[in-house]
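Me: I keep going back and forth on a fold encoding question. No explanation is needed for now; the record alone will do.

Assistant:
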Amino acid sequence: MTRILIFGNPLVEKDSLPLRLLPELRKRLPEVEFVEADPEDMPDERDLFIIDSALGIRDVVLIDNLDQLENCKLISSHDMDLGQTLGLMKVAGLLDSVKIIAVPINIAEAVALDKIEKIIRAI
């Protein structure tokens, strides 16, 4: 069974879309295990499949290379985002591969659902 980690913050509108899509994703893709996750408590898995919100993109995209992620400037460890956490895991030898379905923060839910489903079914 494919396992996909869902990231987001239900209290922050621009970061909550993947979580809002979760019930419908589970209905459409019952063969996939969708798991709510937190970058501060990453699972002990060497190959990760993730759905997360992304700034600066216009369409749902599949990212399979961490070099495609733009890193923000860190002031402290509290400023780390998912991309930096994954980068550290890769450098530490804790991560072999990652696939991220990046979802724009301003996309319509129905459009996002269709595009996410299409990407998952294609993999």
